[in-house]
Amino acid sequence: MAPAAPKSGDVIFASVDRVNAELFTLTYGAIVRQLITDLEEVEEVNKQLDQMGYNIGVRLVDEFLAKSNVSRCVDFRETAEVIAKVGFKMFLGVTASVTNWDAEGTTCSLILEDNPLVDFVELPDTCQGLHYCNILSGVVRGALEMVSMKTEVTWLRDMLRGDDIFELQVKLLKQVPEEYPYKDDE
Amino acid sequence: MAPAAPKSGDVIFASVDRVNAELFTLTYGAIVRQLITDLEEVEEVNKQLDQMGYNIGVRLVDEFLAKSNVSRCVDFRETAEVIAKVGFKMFLGVTASVTNWDAEGTTCSLILEDNPLVDFVELPDTCQGLHYCNILSGVVRGALEMVSMKTEVTWLRDMLRGDDIFELQVKLLKQVPEEYPYKDDE
Q: Keyword NAD: yes or no (chains A, B) (predicted)?
């Protein structure tokens, strides 16, 4: 039997269970506030958000592969497109665009113009070093690690810091295809 | 002009921005885990989750009133029904039922058979005193306080503790109608 065709992010997003985005936004805001209170140092909060995101990404990848019918991507370029168009849509309800590729095809940027995490958010002066959305960079890193791509994920632009968009740079450090946890014919 | 008719929870839920429920579930799980690590005492975690929920409820009530076209409820009975049928549906995508009323009509239970917060969750033995969903009791308490109903909200049954349903008891302590922040004709 031919494998099922990959589904679009819109189709998957329409079919999964969802909760109200404002509830999610406020709940995420409550986490960040809690971490700032508990950890005090903004750099520590950034690290902790990234680690929480990593743990989430490691688990979300299962739902992603199960629901999207996406099979193994041929290369990092295709992987980046799938994250931007299917992954972001499926989980956050928004799509990203992929740009700023380097010559080797191992570094690119995901551009988000709309980001439900930051609705109603303004950073006070005391939090200027905060990467408020660092959970997202962690999710991307964790999810990619589960499909054997070790990456470094960095915010280059951040609307909460006055930029006009969110730009998340994803740099492929190492790819270990044989550790891929799913076989195509399973 | 006649006021717009109240909308059903289904209609509102279909119209608001949403995110993937699994992302929400895992993000909430990450908060709880973080609080357990930081605060150590389960009782403190319960308090903190309730307080976070309270802060969220205080803000969510605005979106609720704006989107639902619900006007002032005539009494606590009607309020409880609106929370169960419209509020829960609008934010979590599930409805609750209202039962176990006392003779005075000031105490009732909201029954949840399905709760997206606890998908995939199992409590380890070290967390047996934890009210994992305490954010919800806080949300209900905070939202009701914004419409001038001071309440006490307590979990009577909890599926993570082996019960067959979630039962959230809501007890009206005090009602101060004149502090209601919205006039019907606004």
A: no
